[in-house]
Amino acid sequence: MLTVNALRAISDSTSYSRGKYYFSQGQVRNIDSAHIGKSKVRITGTVHGSIRYRASLEFDYDTDAVITHSCSCPYNWGGACKHIIALGLAYVDQTGTDIEEEPYPAVRKKSMAQNRYSLDKIRILISYIHENDLLCIQPEAIYGPHFFPLCATGVQEHGEGFVIDRDRETEYRAWNEMCPDPGIDLDEEGKFYTTGSASFYFLKYILPELEMIYEIVIDQSARHLTDIEKENVETEWQTAGSGIDFLDFKVELHCANANLTIEQLQEMMQEGNPYVRREDGSFVELGNTEEIESLFEFLETSKKSGNGKYSTKLFRVPEMLSIIQNATSSRLTAMDGYVKTFLDESQNGKPIIPVTIPARLEKILRPYQKRGVEWGMFLRKYHFGGILADDMGLGKTLQALTLISQRSHTKTTNPSIVICPKTLINTWMTEAAHYTPELKTLAIEGTTAERRLLMKKMQDVDLIVTSYPLLLRDIKEYSIRKQHFYYCILDEAQYIKNSASESAQAVKCIAAEHRLALSGTPLENGIHELWSIFDFLMPGFLHDKKTFTTRFLKPIHDHQDQAALATLQAKIKPFMLRRTKTTELKDLPAKIEQIRFCSLTPEQIVLYSQTMDAVKRDVFKVVEEKGFKRSRIEILSALMRLRQVCNHPALILKESSKDPIRSGKMPHAMEIIQEAIEGDHKVLVFSAFTSMLDIIRVELDAQGIGHVTIEGKTKNRAQQIKIFSENPNIPVFLLSLKAGGVGLTLTAADTVILFDPWWNPMAETQAMDRAHRIGQTKTVNVYKLITKDTIEERVLALQDKKKKIFDAMMGETGEALGSLTWDDIKSLFDI
After folding, report:
1. What would the pLDDT profile of 576-597 be if each residue is shown by its tens digit?
2. How far apart are CA 573 and CA 391, in angstroms?
């Protein structure tokens, strides 16, 4: 059995004392033991000190002796280190042995007969010279009645009637433990001195360790230095002036009754000296360093004008207020009336003076839509941009039209422009005619020549509607004409989520007094998409792209930094309005989502296995050659082939028969359609593949089921919608996920079939919400067809990850953000 005495036998008094302290503090973890022979046992574990070390020892049951020991620490003075002792004591305690035995003989007693003296103890004297700010440390070695400077040479070790047995090894080890700088030497009196940051480091980190081992004697002159207090840096903010686009402010800093400048504080933090000094030389450690870092980040992106004064954009006031409110020792001591009004309005999301809405629209708008208009008027007042991020089906178009029509108090004669997907031009024109007939509208579309003629009429209308592709072609013409707009509104603003895209660059060239973005899904894959949209709305609001990546994107995506996420949420909160159908449409019938698991047909099983082997080989080869980031097109192409096999073999075998019976999903889809028709319901069927819609269409024709279709190539969308909504003999609407997933109102249907899952859950939600929106009076049933034991099941997990990105940024959950990685892709291949 391992005993305390066996541990004492392999260590000196210092190592044993420090090891016992580590043990008493519970620093030993992951203890494991194993028999390695008839009577031998090996013990291993980790000891957590300033660094985690791995220690082990072996002992013999028969002799109760430690045979060997080792540790990953740099200790090499001979004997067992403190980590091995801590491990051994933890094992002794774990096995039930009493560890409180006779104290270790810390002092080797002198031999009276020979008057020989061995090392009794090491004593450290500490004093302070205030005039020179010098901390004096005087270590001494005590041998019986004799004492002299630690590690001193030339000391009389032999004399009449006595002999001193110098323990140089222990003395040098003690010197290494107490000296903060290996380059420091003892002076002739055996003292060494520190000043400034070296003194702080010694008192803060070294002295507490030394007190556990050695005798410490603190002179009266230094007693006030040893207890280092911790105080917060207090910040006082004052707004010194403001206007329509700017804010002047001043920040004063105080700590321990001392005034600090920003430069002093930054120097402290950068050099690793987070303290201030009182007049008596004592140290006060800064207690709120994280809050100070937030302050620095805010000031770094503000314009400095000297003496603690700064200037910044007015849209950063909510961010400044968030810093003040979240800090433990900050306060806003003075602000002008303009800023106070702005803060009140930004917190309430509307102007203090009530917004007057025309009587006709007052009767139409729902309460939450009126609040949306008030929020838009708040943005307009301060020349801010914003994202109306309401859930699909809550009437973002109507709210935007109301804002455009609220121009009676302005002197502008410039028209407003709406830029939207090509398929939504007609929707805007129809809704404008219905809700705001007083607005003269103009759709700029057609051939190049036709669009040039239409542009000549721009100053004669109130609202222009065009598409992203057409704007890209016409942006030079708008610039040549020097056309200025009242409002520039982006519908489905996620179209510019890629800041490097030509569409994103084009919309940012539009000159407009006010800017607004509409999107139920302002970020689909990551918060970098938010940066692109806000770069259109208010350039500089989320800093430049490099700063945004450093401060927000990488901390949130790579490290799930909740503090960075909270800061970003607070920053954008006044400029993004998000409501959901759950909270606002209490009278909207429920939406019930169900997953229908399907099986592959025998033919699909063989084809899926062959395709999986092929694409896996191809993908890993291209990733090895080009790297993951440069292989995304090939990866998505390979994954698409697997998804196509799950739908129908003919989607990849182009000359193959399109017989519906070859698809494991078709019986499920047709069963749902037939049950719906029997119950007098109408059905929307979505697929990401138009070739799959072709196969479904053939089967519907074979069974005499009426249907209409909207795909990317469909020209008469409005006519198709009208037929489906009004003709009782047309119960099925076939839609491609991309062309039919946005901008349509199809409340005549209450059954939705998602024939194949899409990577992005927001795209699926947009599709199913074509039916689940204002005007729906029935419960909407959504059926997702998922093929078991295939890539489609793994797509569901990927969807969940992407939904967490959206929910976290929208504040709908507190979950950390994540991003798609090579490991995620490999999981799709079942690796």
Report:
1. 998 888 788 877 888 888 888 8
2. 16
